[in-house]
Amino acid sequence: MRYIGNIFRPPSEANSLLIQATIGCSHNRCSFCAMYRDKEFRVRRLEHVFKDIKTAREYYGPDVKRVFLCDGDAMVLSAEHLLEILKALEHNFPELQRVGTYANARDILKKTDTELKELVRHRLSLFYIGLESGSDKILKWVDKGATAAEMIAAVNKAMAAGMKSSVIYLLGIGGRKFWRENAIESARAVSGMNPNYLSALTVTVIPGTPLANEMDEGSFELPSPEEFALELKVFLEHLHVKATVFRSNHASNYVPLAGRLPKDKERLIAEIDDAIKNHRFKPEFLRGL
Fold first, then answer.
1. Is 95 exposed, middle or buried (0-12, 13-18, 19+ CB in 10 A)?
2. Which terminal Cβ of the chain has fewer Cβ within 10 Å, N or C?
3. Residue 57: inside a domain
């Protein structure tokens, strides 16, 4: 296997075979993100991807069940290009159950319903999308590259084609000034998506990013642990989904939570209230990206 630069994948893909279909992120301008700033975006040549798949088959055998396509947004590839990769994976791994990828909203919206259904038929069945915030003001400020409406439409379109969705909400990205707007507008957006999976991560200011520069200049102020927890509480109070697996147990979170919504909503809010009341937050030395 030949990986170029640092490789990232969601925690739920820990046991997946990682295949690098693209290098870097086609957008790569989000002010809070440093994941792909060491790479210039480009599409890997198919013969290189095929060679990695063949090497993985030789090393792991035919029983690979899950694959994750790296880097930042393999969905930027044309449907034809993706199908070539998916067919090679199916050929080499007959036990393959699912393929996952990060996705940008506009890349999903560019594909037709027929194309998306064909990708699902060849096991591209899970996508991860960073909503970050449901506030267009905040999304524009962090240079997300999509509006909340576009992200809602993209999630609904891909799910209608048969894909499962995993949506990321970023606590604190509105700073202390816009925490409540971030909570309420993000809850509105997620409610419009009704995703299969929902993760709440906590913004981490990484040195060298535009967000770090804004914090140094005083235009962005990081919330306290109590304020992060209060934002999550308000978010959950305004969230209305039908059947969503919820997690806020990422290494970045001060209050680790897990449950199913809406069934566990009251319990989750009670756990947040208890954490605030008793100042029960994960210590800084245990937090990470």
1. exposed
2. C
3. yes
